[in-house]
């Protein structure tokens, strides 16, 4: 490749990326998941479309797909609120293990007895289509303000269910499950999940301490450090301990997201942008890998049958069984069942049989591709309507406040940058009514193009930006207090981000 060829590739890539970014706005306006647009772009650029780009390297697609999933899981973990995930982590873990097993069993039986497929292909279809997709869940559900425990359960499930399904698809494709038995496979799944999560917890805990103590020369270095830690967690778990790197990176990202790291909002913004880039590249690549000209009517019919089996029968059964110990109301069980979105993960998993040379692997890929397109188009736009009908919307979602933290090393303090959203209950509250911890002060209010030093009687307004100086020992207490007032107003309880006392 010479410089001229590189320039042409850069030009084409930049145009595709810009079109993909602009398409996000239209997909949100239409209520469609953006992955559909990106897959469509890949199809148009592919050999069956006007772009005529020939791409059929399943092994490269498999490797790049896993790298993209690491970035997507990192962004998901960093932006997931631990106080929402912690109470429902047992439910998320059951959905990611027992729920997946139930769904795989349902789909495998339908494919074998109903469609006459071999047991290997039937189990592969079940394993590939059962996991929910982190990219789809994180992007769609964060535009639907549902109750925190529902969002937490769905995000925890999508972050954890990659590990067992990747393992199952790989071992079925290579024939190891049939050779060594189900008991051996179950033990391997438990080992990879548990040790992977513990490794991720260790990496996250050590990294938080190091990043907090490092005074880096530029704010832009902190996001790079966090992203590097995430890849160390994934690759270290996979290479050194032979455990689930996906479980490790998700837990590490949860720990990093929970910690009040320096330049937290800048880090999240950077990783969010990289995650969008990973999603765009992943979906366009998978669209390139597909060959719509080779799709047969029988593949579409099989996709419809398998889609109904996994989305309706398997998903509802897996949620009912997994949620039984937690006594969730039927409205919440129904929403969790329908919100099990498929996306890039099933298509990436479908590249594993292709890379392993499994007979009829190309047919599996085509079926899964059609299934994801059809059922994402059905489920994604219906979620806001369903959440409203089932009355599972979160009334406090609009009041959340954004807080960024920057260290003031020489003073032993931190600078909190606080943005007041339009519907936050901080608006209308006087500075003195915030009841911030001793030693914490609002140093500056930026209102439009004007900045001024407030006094105790200054009334906050929507869209204000505040600079709050907090001694490091009481920084987290100040953050909790600001979040509480943002949600519940001046009469909020002293502790608790949701504006009430916590026991």
UniProtKB/TrEMBL annotation:
Bilayer disposition of the protein: Multi-pass membrane protein
Location in or out of the cell: Cell membrane
InterPro entries for this protein: Cation/H_exchanger_TM (IPR006153), Na+/solute_symporter_sf (IPR038770), RCK_C (IPR006037), RCK_C_sf (IPR036721)
Keyword Transmembrane: yes
Gene3D superfamilies linked to this entry: 1.20.1530.20, Regulator of K+ conductance, C-terminal domain
Record carries keyword Coiled coil: no
Main location: membrane
Membrane-traversing stretches: 6-28, 35-53, 59-79, 91-115, 121-141, 188-211, 269-289, 301-323, 335-355, 361-380
Listed GO biological process terms: potassium ion transport; proton transmembrane transport
Molecular function GO terms recorded: antiporter activity; monoatomic cation transmembrane transporter activity
Protein keywords: Antiport, Cell membrane, Ion transport, Membrane, Transmembrane, Transmembrane helix, Transport
GO cellular component annotations of the record: plasma membrane
RCK C-terminal domain boundaries: 403-485
PANTHER family the UniProt entry points to: K(+)_H(+) ANTIPORTER NHAP2, NA(+)/H(+) ANTIPORTER 1
Protein name in the entry: Potassium/proton antiporter
Annotated source species: Kribbella speibonae
């Amino acid at each position: 490749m010479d410089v001229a060829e590189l320039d042409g590739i850069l030009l084409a890539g930049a145009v595709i990326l810009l079109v993909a970014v602009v398409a996000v706005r239209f997909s949100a306006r239409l209520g469609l998941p953006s992955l559909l647009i990106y897959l469509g772009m890949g199809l148009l650029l592919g050999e069956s479309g006007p772009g005529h780009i020939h791409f059929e390297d399943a092994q490269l697609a498999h490797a790049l797909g896993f790298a993209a999933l690491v970035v997507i899981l990192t962004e998901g973990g960093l932006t997931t609120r631990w106080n929402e995930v912690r109470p429902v982590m047992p439910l998320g873990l059951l959905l990611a293990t027992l729920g997946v097993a139930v769904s795989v069993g349902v789909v495998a039986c339908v494919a074998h007895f109903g469609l006459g497929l071999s047991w290997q292909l039937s189990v592969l279809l079940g394993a590939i289509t059962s996991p929910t997709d982190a990219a789809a869940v994180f992007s769609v559900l964060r535009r639907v303000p549902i109750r925190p425990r529902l969002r937490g359960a769905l995000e925890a499930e999508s972050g954890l269910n990659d590990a067992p399904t990747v393992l199952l698809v790989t071992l079925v494709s290579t024939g190891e499950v049939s050779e060594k038995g189900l008991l051996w496979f179950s033990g391997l799944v438990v080992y990879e999940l548990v040790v992977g999560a513990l490794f991720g917890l260790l990496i996250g805990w050590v990294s938080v301490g190091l990043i907090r103590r490092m005074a880096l020369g530029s704010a832009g270095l902190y996001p790079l450090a966090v992203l590097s830690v995430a890849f160390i967690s994934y690759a270290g778990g996979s290479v050194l301990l032979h455990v689930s790197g996906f479980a490790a990176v998700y837990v590490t990202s949860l720990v990093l997201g929970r910690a009040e790291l320096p330049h937290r909002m800048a880090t999240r913004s950077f990783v969010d942008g990289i995650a969008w880039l990973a999603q765009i590249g992943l979906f366009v690549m998978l669209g390139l890998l597909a060959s719509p000209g080779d799709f047969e009517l029988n593949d579409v019919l099989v996709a419809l049958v398998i889609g109904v089996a996994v989305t309706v029968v398997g998903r509802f059964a897996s949620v009912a069984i997994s949620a039984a110990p937690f006594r969730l109301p039927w409205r919440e069980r129904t929403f969790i069942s329908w919100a099990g979105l498929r996306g890039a993960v099933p298509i990436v998993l479908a590249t594993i049989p292709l890379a392993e040379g499994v007979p009829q692997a190309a047919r599996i890929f085509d079926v899964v591709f059609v299934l994801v397109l059809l059922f994402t188009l059905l489920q994604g736009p219906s979620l806001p309507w369903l959440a409203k009908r089932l009355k599972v919307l979160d009334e406090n979602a609009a009041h959340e406040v954004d807080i960024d933290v920057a260290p003031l090393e020489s003073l032993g303090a931190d600078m909190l940058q606080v943005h007041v959203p339009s519907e936050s209950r901080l608006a209308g509250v006087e500075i003195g009514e915030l009841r911030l911890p001793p030693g914490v002060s609002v140093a500056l209010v930026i209102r439009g193009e004007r900045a001024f030093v407030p006094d105790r009687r200054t009334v906050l307004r929507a869209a204000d930006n505040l600079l709050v100086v907090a001694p490091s020992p009481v920084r987290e207490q100040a953050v909790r207090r600001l979040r509480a007032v943002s949600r519940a107003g001046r009469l909020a309880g002293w502790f608790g981000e949701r504006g009430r006392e916590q026991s």
